[in-house]
Amino acid sequence: MQDLKGQISALEQTQGSPVALTAALHSDSSGAQGTPEKPAQAVREEEHKSSLDLYGFVMLDSGYDFGQIDPNWFDVERPTKLPAFANEFGGNGNVYYGVRQTRFGVKTSTPTGLGDLKTWFEF
After folding, report:
1. H or E element: which one contains 47?
2. pLDDT in tens, the chain (123 residues)
3. CA nearest 108: which of 122, 97, 95, 98?
4. Core-most of 3, 52, 65, 101, by most CB within 10 Å?
């Protein structure tokens, strides 16, 4: 305890201002400097947190056939694939949905002793 009191006295004499004293007390040998609002321990924890990012987009097509159309060409308007006679391809009024260019991804970053370990998975 006496040693800490001696360090505080020495800092008060050399630093002068209470803000500089607080910053000096919160600094460490690794160079991470704290502030009265954010101590050095919090600065170190922020620098070494793992992160996870989720991202992507979805493209959905949908349609409704008021008339008949060849089932093999249900989502393309092609006049040569329209029915040649009544009920050639079944009844009227078909609904269809389809997922098109869609992307989902995950990015992570985890600090290790050898540097950041980063992963990137996308589908």
Report:
1. helix 40-47
2. 788 788 777 777 776 555 554 555 555 444 555 555 555 555 555 566 899 999 999 988 888 877 777 777 766 777 777 778 887 877 777 787 888 888 999 999 999 989 999 999 999
3. 122
4. 65
Q: What local confidence, expressed as pLDDT, does residue 104 receive? A: 93
Instruction: Please enumerate in sequence order all residues whose Cβ is within 8 A of that of 85, keeping only pairs 6 or more positions apart, or say none.
Output: none
CA 65, 71, 75, 80 dihedral sign is negative
Token pair 């349609």: residue: 63
CA distance 61 to 63: 7
| β-strand partners of 99 | 60
> How big is the chain by its Cα radius of gyration, in Å?
33
SS3 assignment, position 120 = strand
Q: Are 106 and 123 in contact (CB under 8 A)?
A: no
Q: Extract the tokens encoding 95.
A: 């609904």
Query: Are the beta carbons of 70 and 81 closer than 8 angstroms?
Result: yes
